[in-house]
DNA sequence: TTGACCATGTAATTTGTTACATGATTTC
DNA sequence: GAAATCATGTAACAAATTACATGGTCAA
């Protein structure tokens, strides 16, 4: 099984989910396409690590639940070595060449970046508030344990969004100062 | 050409580099293997977007330089749509299931995470200091323009390292509080 | 009735990872 | 003289992306 497969199992510890839901939750720290998720869930099901209960649920929606065997399998992975986090950021790839980018385009790139993370920050703040509302900010609500991991991860993501926004402002300011002083040329 | 290929071009705007160097610089925001980088550089060379000057340089080291055609090609990419940043984080994949992880292992996971980002923060701080030293903190040194992009990216990375470390401390504290209160069970 | 979102799947292609291969240099 | 780091390459395999394919729901 690959890392994404284990991660799907990990997310099913919190609550039974459909592939579509998993894709959404996953976006906090792992962007996966549905074309990866659905086949993996089918594989996990064949292996007996998840079961699906399509019961009375609307139309063609498959809610997966982790099995005890799935939990054991997951534990083995959790005990093993943890791979380093991976990032790939095209914006930064472009920014590397900032000295030869048209100033209008630079401003545009920063603006797009800020808008993107502003949107994410808003979404993640809302999610955090919802978790607090559901379980109580003093962490006393029922079922809290199973959502604790997601809560920590969501908080991290929100913190990172804010750090990214702060950096954006700083970097854009630096650029403007630089540009006004020396006019950059090149 | 793919995003990594364009990003390599972008990095060559700053200064001529070997594939090995590029791999190192890239690690700030894009983790690529040498088995991707070397073939891409050969491809870019065949297309005339980079040239290599192995001249008097030690043994088998190939220093690549971007051409004017390469810069034009790069500009087209920079003008186009920017793909969203990608992250994949196994640690967070494990953390999702924190409610069923042995507390000792949880502490270990947090410790490893902190050590990892502490190490990165130290490296990135050092790199930032070197850039400041080389060009002057008031951004007046010669050749500053071409390293400005790298400077911004390096600062971002350092900020993110610190944010990650702060979150780690917060999250570990939350976990300990939670664990001491309710003993988590499960 | 159009567009956004929910919902799942497969196939073709591209990208990324791991393994195979080699060899020099530097530091301890 | 052993280990780490510098340095480049290819091949086999695994994973991710994009395209193809289908169909339901809900709100403006």
Automatic annotation (TrEMBL), chains A, B:
Transcription regulator PadR C-terminal domain: residues covered: 87-174
Superkingdom per UniProt: Bacteria
Domain Transcription regulator PadR N-terminal: 8-76
InterPro entries linked to this entry: Tscrpt_reg_PadR_C (IPR018309), Tscrpt_reg_PadR_N (IPR005149), WH-like_DNA-bd_sf (IPR036388), WH_DNA-bd_sf (IPR036390)
A Pfam family the protein falls into: Vir_act_alpha_C
PANTHER family: TRANSCRIPTIONAL REGULATOR YQJI, TRANSCRIPTIONAL REGULATORY PROTEIN
Record's protein name: PadR family transcriptional regulator
């Amino acid at each position: 099984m690959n890392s994404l497969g284990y991660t799907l199992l990990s997310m099913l510890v919190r609550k039974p989910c459909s592939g579509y839901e998993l894709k959404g939750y996953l976006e906090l720290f792992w962007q996966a396409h549905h074309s990866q998720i659905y086949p993996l869930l089918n594989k996990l099901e064949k292996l007996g690590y998840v079961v699906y209960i399509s019961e009375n649920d609307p139309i063609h929606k498959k809610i997966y639940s982790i099995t005890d065997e799935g939990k054991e399998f997951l534990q083995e992975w959790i005990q093993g070595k943890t791979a380093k986090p991976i990032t790939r950021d095209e914006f930064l790839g472009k920014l590397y060449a900032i000295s030869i980018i048209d100033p209008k385009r630079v401003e545009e790139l920063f603006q797009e970046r800020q808008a993107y993370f502003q949107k994410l920050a808003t979404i993640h703040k809302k999610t955090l508030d919802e978790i607090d509302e559901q379980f109580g900010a003093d962490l006393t609500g029922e079922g809290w344990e199973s959502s604790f991991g997601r809560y920590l991860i969501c908080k991290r993501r929100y913190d990172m969004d804010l750090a990214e926004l702060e950096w954006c402002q700083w970097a854009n300011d630096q650029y403007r100062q630089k540009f006004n002083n020396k006019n950059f040329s090149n």
